[in-house]
TrEMBL record:
Cellular location(s): Membrane
All residue ranges annotated as the O-antigen ligase-related domain in the record: 184-321
Protein name: Lipid A core-O-antigen ligase-like enyme
GO molecular function: ligase activity
Organism per entry: Singulisphaera acidiphila (strain ATCC BAA-1392 / DSM 18658 / VKM B-2454 / MOB10)
Stretches that traverse the bilayer: 35-53, 65-85, 91-111, 118-136, 182-212, 224-243, 306-328
Membrane topology: Multi-pass membrane protein
Pfam families membership: Wzy_C (PF04932)
Lineage of source species: Bacteria, Pseudomonadati, Planctomycetota, Planctomycetia, Isosphaerales
InterPro entries according to UniProt: O-antigen_ligase-rel_domated (IPR007016), WaaL-like (IPR051533)
Source domain of life: Bacteria
Length: 390
């Protein structure tokens, strides 16, 4: 391995540690570093220049995502002409543009299969550390999370933490040994459970089932599922009762643990969805322009739905932006990579109904770039086979 390849791997490890883990954002919010996430990204981009002078060997699958990035940037900038941007809209505009640039940079950085596997290994390490931090925070509420009682680790937001762990499981299973894959998925499930994010817990259950079934077959999966379901049915209520007795669960968290619907959070989201539908009906074709999804009346509670958010900004066709990205990044993947691409596409399609920040979240874009690069990067060259005549 030459120095350029080693340097590329160092950059990949740094990207996973700084951006997939959301470490930079955590340090910035804690005022432990004197610069912003954008400044850190610009410094990282400059550091990547020496290894980006040579494009990836095979850009077939990447080409579709590059086209999506270009088309989305055009839509974002064109819709600025009728947008009325306040401070929130300007921040969203910058975050979305930098998110697309980040996606392009990661696509270029993950240049070959070896780099992709190394990146997936880095994701596994970050995911396991995040699980450990979430478990620790259960016994030290409020250490990281903005919602004490619901673990979040470095992500600070419990829902983000849950989604990041599920994505780490989907991609990480590619490089975890077959004998440890089920235990890895279960460890991630424990980390997700500590967030008490209902959407993330359901997403983990569905994606873990799908990913394990695709990798181990339905017969072995059924046995695993029965054992896990039995263990959960026996231990789950006891754990919740223990946490309640220790005063570690408030009413909101307890209702989430029981998957109750209709709390204050649900009412806010329902109202935001109603506002969003009213705005979409008023501006069905062009929308209200880039950034409108965080301007009044959405400055207090966002739509919590990427499809509604993009339709508010860009009209009905805006609801196709995320599906177009998922199709571009996963369509036509070889069968060996479908255990990554299929769960990823399904989970992000599902997660779009619960988050309006998908196109700005670096941990999501990191995984999308990695999944795309896995399917696009050429396999390592096979050793030459000696011929019959030497």
């Amino acid at each position: 391995m030459n120095y350029a390849s080693k340097y590329r791997l160092v950059l990949v490890a740094a990207a996973a540690a700084a951006f997939f883990s959301d470490l930079i954002a955590f340090l910035m919010d804690a005022k432990l570093i004197p610069f912003t996430v954008t400044h850190a990204f610009l410094l990282f981009a400059i550091a990547c220049v020496p290894v980006l002078t040579r494009p990836p060997a095979d850009r077939g699958q990447r080409q579709a995502v590059f086209f999506w990035c270009f088309a989305t940037l055009v839509v974002i900038f064109v819709s600025l002409s009728w947008a009325q941007l306040g401070e929130g809209g300007q921040t969203l505009f910058r975050n979305r543009v930098f998110g697309i640039i980040f996606l392009v940079l990661m696509l270029l950085l993950f240049s070959d299969r070896q780099t992709c596997r190394f990146a997936a290994g880095a994701v596994v390490c970050v995911t396991l550390v995040s699980v450990a931090l979430n478990i620790y925070e259960m016994f030290a509420p409020g250490t990281f999370s903005t919602n004490p009682g619901r673990s979040a680790g470095l992500y600070e937001n419990s829902n983000k933490s849950g989604a990041a762990l599920v994505l780490g499981m989907i991609v990480g299973l590619e490089v975890v040994s077959m004998r440890w894959q089920v235990l890895y998925a279960l460890a991630v499930g424990v980390g997700v459970a500590t967030t008490f994010s209902r959407s993330a817990m359901l997403g983990w259950a569905l994606m873990a089932s799908l990913a394990i079934a695709m990798r181990h077959g339905t017969g072995r999966f059924t046995r695993y599922a029965l054992i896990v379901a039995l263990a959960g049915a026996v231990s789950g209520p006891a754990v919740i009762l223990y946490l309640e007795d220790r005063g570690m669960l408030d009413d909101n968290t307890a209702s989430r643990a029981n998957f109750e619907i209709g709390g204050e959070s649900d009412e806010y989201r329902f109202e935001a969805a109603q506002f969003a539908l009213d705005v979409i009906v008023e501006h069905p074709f062009l929308g209200r322009g880039t950034g409108a999804s965080v301007e009044p009346p959405f400055d207090f509670v966002g739509p919590h739905n990427i499809y509604l958010a993009l339709m508010i900004e860009h009209g009905i066709l805006g609801g196709l932006i995320l599906p177009a990205l998922l199709v571009a990044s996963t369509w036509g993947a070889a069968s060996e990579f479908r255990p990554i691409t299929v769960p990823l596409a399904i989970f992000l399609s599902y997660w779009g109904f619960f988050s309006h920040n998908i196109l700005e979240e670096r941990y999501i874009l990191f995984v999308v770039a990695l999944a795309t690069s896995f399917t696009a990067a050429p396999p390592p060259p096979r050793p030459a086979t000696p011929g019959l005549i030497s």
